Amino acid sequence: MNILIVDDAPDIQRLLALFLKAAGYTSVQLASSGYEALETLGADGPPSIPPDIDLVLMDVSMQGLDGVEACRQIKTNERLQDIPVIMVTGKSEPEDLKRAFDAGAMDYITKPINRVELLARVRSALKLKSEMDRRKSREQELLEVTRQLEQANEQLAHLAVSDSLTGLANRRRFDEIIASEWRRCARDRAPLSLLLLDVDDFKAYNDTYGHQSGDDCLRGVAEVLNSVARRPGDLTARYGGEEFALVLPNTTPEGAQHVAETARARVEQSQIEHATSSICDFVTVSIGVATIVPNGKAIPADLIQAADQAMYAAKHAGKNRVQSVTFPAADSQE
User: Fold this and answer.
1) Contacts of 108 (CB under 8 A, 6+ apart)
2) Cα separation of 27 and 190, whole Å?
3) CA-closest candidate to residue 31, choices 10, 45, 46
4) Residue of 242, 254, 261, 273 with catalytic role
5) DSSP, res 113
């Protein structure tokens, strides 16, 4: 345990240090003023680094910054406030003691110094400091465990709605988002667009390069799609197998067509080799686009079906292309 003696009288410093060292407290530091005490304690140090002093014995009456004010500054300093302070005073008037306790002192001893009293109060203060340190350590451990649990829960929540292969939203998340965006766009009478994409000739790709390369291919396509749908409300999801979906709230048919063409072009431009493709030397995608301003005459499944039909129309039209459809309910908005 480290003890700091603060007194502007050298003889009191020596006497206190002698009593403490004789009792086994060998780590004793000295300061001759309140200012020197604050400097020794490192009052300006970073709060994250605890001080190396466990107890302060502080004279009440000192030139400059007296003991009461120095104690007050210690107790209002986040880094130092847990250090117990015992006031050393030649006065025992109630008003003086009240000032000391109001400043944050935990105890006091009077001059002339009584060795037995001094050591008893020092032991009591250090025991209290040790208990406070253990409690604080347990609190910090608890906070860390709580933080780790919160982080683990966040990771679990993320995994629950993420596709493990591509890192995109999974089908569960897709279903949640398209339902919520449907309701919001219905309230705002705003257009909701959906893109469904399928990797062309993906079975042939797997047969040629193997399933590990197939997984790499899907990850590459997912990365491209993420770079296209960048607005905060947009969602890129793995719909299933080699199919992907882009949910685009507040997006007109023209806007959705532009996003789809951009996605198709960037996938082809990424030049993922596909030697057995029926249409190109590289991996390509076929994309179906559907848009609606939701109303009571349709449900999200209708939008999905329309985009799915458009995607298969793109396949049948020759692949590596975008096909849009006029959503049936779009012609009958309320």
Assistant:
1) 86, 87, 88, 89, 97, 100
2) 74
3) 10
4) 242
5) P
Q: Residue written as tokens 């345990």?
A: 1
Q: Kindly provide the b/e burial profile for residues 70-108, where b requires at least 16 CB atoms within 10 angstroms of the residue's own CB.
A: bbbbbbebebbeebbbbbbbeeeeeebbebbeebbbbbb
What is the rounded distance in angstroms from the CA atom of residue 199 to the CA atom of residue 243?
7
> In this structure, how many other beta carbons lie within 10 angstroms of the beta carbon of residue 141?
10
The dihedrals phi and psi of 235, each to the nearest 5 degrees, come to -130, 130
Rounded Cα–Cα distance for residues 158 and 196 (Å): 23
Separation between Cα atoms, residue 60 and residue 25, nearest integer Å = 23
Tell me the pLDDT tens digit for each residue of 172-193.
999 999 999 999 999 999 999 9
Are 55 and 4 a contacting pair, CB within 8 Å? yes
Ranges of the chain with pLDDT below 50: 329-334
For 182-242, strand residue ranges (E) read 192-199, 235-240
Decide if 277 contacts 201 (C-beta within 8 A): yes
Residue 242 annotated in active site: yes
Structure-token pair, residue 191: 């257009």
Specify the DSSP element, H or E, that contains 3: strand 2-6
Tokens 């780790």 -> residue: 148
pTM of the complete model: 0.59
